[in-house]
Amino acid sequence: MGLRAAMVAVLGPALLLAALGWEGGAVPAVYTDDLPPVLWFRRDGERVTVTLASTPSASSSATMGAVNGSVQRMASPRPLPLPLRPSSGGGLAARLPSALGAPFMLEAARPGVAVANGVLTMLWANADAATTPNDWFGLQSLALNDLEITLRDAYMHDPGADGGETGLLAPGDPYPSAPGRCAKTEGAGWKNASMDACVIAVLNLRRSLPFKPDGSCCATATLSTFDSQGRHVSTFSSDAGVYILRFPHALNNTLMHVSATLAEGVEGAVGGVPYRTVLHRATATARLVRTWSPAL
Description:
By secondary structure, the chain is mostly beta strands. The chain has three helices and 18 strands. Strand 16 and strand 17 (273-275) form a beta hairpin.
């Protein structure tokens, strides 16, 4: 399967134009430890935990407030509740519904409860399980979160891609011709990293690309990527809406994490305090799977 055909499988023709020629790694990376706290999903078997932290691996804040959880299933239009309760290990935890099979989408949302300097902050998180690239069309239509960023691997079940099942950039092969590999990016903060994986990320605001007020695409968002250990890799801003993100040293079956921040001009009030902007912060956690087994 060629690169264009693979990308159409997870994006559709309308989104393909936004993604072609764009790679998040091609933007000069901004390295910083000053990352805001956001919601992150963690999974251990049938138990899931939602944390409030600046990175996926950091300890959770003890003051998370109320967080709503849900499970969206392709097999049913009705979402299942995901009752999140305080965990002794930190964060909020829940058990997945019994006999839950992919494809599905886990979502968590913390409503804005306070206004600071005219800004209401909303926190969102998701962790998804797809069985084929085409599952993303259905999952995207089921999303309940206002801001959703999803990681979509066009080669998740193509064992022939990249010359094997791992789909990795091999050492000494900086400009591979096989589809699905990352091309080496000069001058972009990548220090000859080998074994990198590139996947597609799509940012949706209420189930569609975040269009600007004039109807053009897309509103500028700030994205941060994190490696399989939850360590911060890079931060960049772009108005693409659709991105090709690069995850360093991404071995098969390892986790990928991304956060996205988007400001939306919306007026309202909370507790009698007015706001003029809603600041959305969303995260996604996904597992790189390029063998014949479900993701996550």
